[in-house]
């Protein structure tokens, strides 16, 4: 049996964008930040790897992780909680300076 070819750069980029999109779809701020960072770290490790066998293994694991991430994001969206203080957008200063009796 011949070993599978290493994934193309296009395939890796496509998987990276899909995983980032899934990571950013979490409704919980902490989960969202964690998975975006984890995704970037995973692909940075893949980018720095020179051994084609190791790249193939990292890519295969990332494909599995992508499916889990997608399902987890959906569940998180279903049971999302309150927004944290860091997520609430502050009004612009000129909006807060307007009088309410006008």
List the helices and strands and how they pair.
Elements: H1 9-24, H2 29-48, H3 52-78, H4 93-96
Helix pairs in contact: 1-2, 1-3, 2-3
Structure summary:
The protein has 102 residues and is mainly α. Helix content is 66%, strand content 0%.
The number of distinct β-strands equals 0
Rg calc:
20 Å
What gross morphology would you assign? Answer: elongated
Q: How much β-strand is present in the residues?
A: under 5%
Structural class: mainly alpha
Quote the average pLDDT. 86
Could you spell the SSE succession in H and E letters? HHHH
Family: Belongs to the complex I LYR family.
Protein name: Complex 1 LYR protein domain-containing protein
InterPro entries: Complex1_LYR_dom, Complex1_LYR_LYRM4, ISC_assembly_LYR
Pfam family, one: Complex1_LYR
How would you sum up this structure, described in words?
The protein has 102 residues and is mostly helical. The longest helix has 27 residues, at 52-78. The chain is built from four helices and no strands. It starts with 8 loop residues before the first helix and ends in a 6-residue tail after the last helix. It has a domain at 9-79. The protein has helices at 9-24, 29-48, 52-78, 93-96. Helix content is 66%, strand content 0%.
